[in-house]
Design brief:
Blueprint (H helix, E strand, L loop, with lengths): L3 H14 L6 H13 L20 H4 L16 H7 L1
Helix pairs in contact: 1-2
Length: 84
């Protein structure tokens, strides 16, 4: 989705800034920060518009997938007892 990088920017930038200067990882962090400069951060109030079952929620919080249980329809004999 077009808003995903805007939603991730406020979370990613502080972490990228923590990468130690002079390391190969810092080169990648600088590349990512240069890429993120093209995106406006999504205001925190607008995060409520991100669907609760969006994979993006795994990174920004509020996911409903933490309580996800595989459907019995997809169970195999080996997993049927664990799912029941």
């Amino acid at each position: 989705m077009v808003y995903e990088l805007s939603a991730l920017k406020p979370l990613a930038e502080p972490l990228l800034m923590q990468v130690e200067t002079g390391t190969p990882e810092r080169l990648e962090a600088n590349r990512l920060m240069a890429f993120l400069q093209w995106f406006e951060p999504l205001p925190e109030a607008d995060l409520r518009y991100v669907a609760n079952d969006s994979i993006l929620r795994e990174f920004i919080g509020g996911s409903v997938l933490d309580t996800f249980h595989p459907s019995h329809w997809y169970a195999t004999e080996a997993t049927a007892e664990r799912i029941s």
